[in-house]
Amino acid sequence: MADAANATPPCNLVAIDIARYWNAVLIETADGKRHRFKMANTAADFDRLVEFLHGLLGVCRVALEPTGDYHRPIAHRLLVEGFEVVGINSVAQSRYREAMFNSWDKNDPKDAAVILEMLRRGAFQRYVDPMLAGNHDLQELAKTYYQVSRARTKVQHSLINHCLPLYFPEMHRYWATTRNEWFVRFLLEFPTPAHVRALTCDQFVEAAWGVVGRKVDKRAKLQELWEMAGTTAALPHAPDSLAVETFRITLRRYQGLNVLRTELEIRAEQALAADADFAHLKTLPGIGSVLAMTILAEGGNLHRFGHHRQFLKYCGLDLAKNQSGTQRGKEQLSKRGNARLRLAFWLAAVGAVRMRENSFRAKYERYIRPAPDDADLRRKALTAVAAKMARVAYGMIKKNQPYRQFHEQSLPSGSIPLSAAVGALATP
Predict the structure, then answer these.
(1) What pLDDT does 406 receive?
(2) What are phi and psi of 362, to 5 degrees?
(3) CA-to-CA distance for 291 and 282, rounded, in angstroms?
(4) Residue 44: CB partners within 8 Å, gap ≥ 6?
(5) Among 405, 400, 402, which Cα is nearest to 422's?
(6) What are 358-404's pLDDT values in tens digits?
(7) Which of 55, 183, 326, 351 shows the greatest Cβ crowding within 10 Å of its Cβ?
């Protein structure tokens, strides 16, 4: 009786090759029988698949290759129904298919067979459903912010590289930051030098006074703009021309994306106001609300990683090397992890090394000391700092403690004390 109670239930293997409209399903039951069929990404076919799997004797382990977001609905449904769902790496599947069939050609039934074989051999990864894990809303907010930022950058490049050379090239010198709202407001009011010179200097100063915002010696700045508009290299556009109207359309679109980006930043702060991990991450040099939100959204629950090397591998910040015989390749980033996480830590590293005092900047300066002007060495140094940033972030969240900032002490030699070389808790 005890042996019967402890017996392992039979396991049925289910392989699903995901596509946009139709999925190829290959099921191998515990007694060795195989079932092949196609199913649509519809609720009715989901119900039929779930009913069929519930009718099998034993447990079911379902493997699928994540494809875009088409796998998310069926994976969520299977997890809710109590089935085990695992993921198959796309690169591993491609190489396994070539080795298995000695050919590079592919089709859906063949891919399902490869997934089943990899499932049988245990070559799969744990699948985490964002909705069940509780970070779906945050992930969608982070992805929306990313898409808005990309659209905004595209419009910004159009303004700088196309519009300004044609309509008001002298204004490019005042483009100092991507958050200069006064710049867009000014060009909406005065898109060409002709709009500026249509007024006298005093009239222009009065009309533009509230547009340019707070400035040091605002009157002198506006007088400088008026004088500059008199010797312009811009094309002679008529103030009421269709071209100027399209220029204003581009400016309004850029302004609207700026407003939307700010609203998303405020929404992120509101959504994560009570999150301790969010507050701890923001204490790291170079990490603000957006990057902290991205790390939490893409990383999920960082406590599931048993070691910081696992988290680095998940980010794609682990080192890999190709070696064959006597040939030894150089170690480089694998870049096989989450690209958004890798980008977030890279941007955080760029911000940290520009600050005055922190251990990340110290690491960067030590790295580039042999050749400060070497661009390739600077890139490698930033990569090393990004990896350190990921290790420190993992340690902070794992131990539920904020970043410890050490300040430089005034020593007679002017050197930095050894205690300042470490800017955060040691990670396991």
Answers:
(1) 54
(2) -60, -40
(3) 8
(4) none
(5) 405
(6) 889 889 999 999 998 999 899 989 999 999 999 999 999 999 998 88
(7) 183
Q: What are phi and psi of 111, to 5 degrees?
A: -65, -40
For the four alpha carbons of 277, 281, 283 and 288, in that order, the dihedral sign comes to: negative
Spatial CA neighbour of 350 closest among 394, 291, 408, 421:
291
Using an 8 Å Cβ cutoff, are 317 and 299 in contact? no
pLDDT at position 295 is: 93
CA 262/CA 51 separation, integer angstroms: 47
In this structure, the strands spanning 11-17 and 59-64 are parallel
Q: How many CB atoms lie within 10 A of CB 141?
A: 19
| pTM score, whole prediction | 0.80
Which amino acid does the sequence have at 276?
A: A
Instruction: Calculate Rg over the CA atoms of the chain.
Output: 29
Spell out the residues 6+ positions from residue 162 whose beta carbon is closer than 8 angstroms to its own.
none
Residue 81: phi and psi, rounded to 5, are -80, -5
